[in-house]
């Protein structure tokens, strides 16, 4: 079992084997604030800090029979079905941190717990649908100051190699991206969070429109023997002469979004823009007539 999932089981164990879904996310968030290398990343969500990965891990642990998910009066609970002293499977420093979280926050109601995270970490409350019911005007203003709003249209590129879904989404939020254009031929990934359906739902949850443009992708067969930058360069030269030229209409879909004042990010897998065809797409967009937007690599 992964160490990350042991943390989840230990957290539930420390809190007597049961937490609401909201409590679980908040306690886990506060625990990771104590970690030098965080086991989970979080995004601002409808009820504050939220980890897609942690949510998925609970579902996996449920499938393995370690816990169960129940709903009572529209409140979702995570409950341990096995109690194997999970706290002792953690590193000493993480064990101490979990116990400290229980001692410091264990007596708070769910509402008080949410209010505390909003006050202390206002960025994670910027998408909240309940903040106005919990905070005063000064506290709400602190959250408002965390929101990024830019009037300029902008073109971005971003790869998801080596980062979590939450880190990826936070990069989009911080740069006020409102449209994500996926230029993969096949929007499937073995990396959690980056297959089309999951990525689209994650974007929707933070008010970012997701658009898949497979015509601008490269078939996987052509990507198998790429060992050097020269190999990539040869592939991209061919791509520019064929796929990109043959699919100008798809390129103009992106240009139309930019012309409407959108802040658009092109995405694919590779971290290094020099090794991703999205750079060919961005170059083509920057070379179109009457370009009045800037390019930024995320």
Q: In words, what does this structure look like?
A:
The chain is α/β, with parallel strands linked by helices. The protein folds into 2 domains: about 5-145, no CATH class; about 155-295, Cobalt-precorrin-4 Transmethylase, domain 1, CATH 3.40.1010. The protein has 13 helices and 10 strands. The protein has helices at about 5-15, 20-35, 50-65, 90-105, 110-120, 130-135, 135-145, 165-175, 195-205, 230-240, 245, 250-260, 280-285; strands at about 20, 45, 50, 65-70, 75-80, 155-160, 180, 210, 265-270, 295. The strands form 3 sheets. A 5-stranded parallel beta sheet has the order 8-7-9-6-10, sandwiched between helices. Strands 1-5-4 form a 3-stranded antiparallel beta sheet. Helix 9 links the parallel strand 7 (about 180) and strand 8. Helix 2 (about 20-35) runs parallel beside helix 5 (about 110-120). The longest helix is centred in the N-terminal third of the chain and has 14 residues, at about 90-105. The model has no long low-confidence stretch (mean pLDDT about 95).
